[in-house]
Amino acid sequence: MKSVYIPNLLNASGQQQTYEVQEHLHGLSTLTPVNGRVQVTHNGNFLEVKAIAETIVTLICDRCLQQYNHRLQIDLSELIWLEEPVEVDEEGVEIEVAMEDLVETLPPKGYFSPDEWLYEQLCLALPQRQLCDVDCSGIVVESADRSADLLQPVDQRWASLQVLKENLLN
């Protein structure tokens, strides 16, 4: 997908542009291409971006470290305000920013990159807690006898420390 020159959206039919997506996005490892649609509408002083997309990604379970496939789906919209960036005369000057100013902005005569925006939204949709199954038991330890062998010091110089540890536990 090509970047959109924002003033060109004003000349488009309905002041909007729709992109059909069926490709792998750079930087996002997926098993299947990202399938969906991104619609960008120019509403005077802001862009309204809507997207419906899905793909399948391979994740690693946080408990058992096994790979599993996860269907990643988004259906969302976002408003991106169009305003000129604030210019600072001196480098290193602190600027106070109000809470209501913490929104996404683009310059009115700049470019909007739908594929970059879609990549960001898909990354935000990745689950923070990656579990292959809700009942995943984690890494299975083979046997209790085997774990006792692992506690034995490999180096005999640590034997006295092991004896002290056993005395403290008893």
Provide key terms for this protein.
170 residues; alpha+beta; five-stranded mixed sheet; two-stranded antiparallel ribbon; 3 helices; elongated
What would your notes on this structure say?
With 170 residues, this protein is of the alpha+beta class. The chain has one domain. It is built from three helices and seven strands; from the N terminus they run βββββββααα. A five-stranded mixed sheet has the order 2-3-4-5-6. Strands 1-7 form a two-stranded antiparallel ribbon.
Could you describe the largest sheet, including whether it forms a barrel?
A: 5 strands, mixed
- Choose one word for the global shape: elongated
* Strand order, largest beta sheet: 2-3-4-5-6
Mean pLDDT: 87
- Helicity, in percent? 10-25%
* Computed structural class: alpha+beta
The tally of domains stands at 1
Helix count, DSSP H or I runs of 4 or more residues: 3
State the low-pLDDT regions, or none. none
The arrangement of helices and strands along the chain is: EEEEEEEHHH
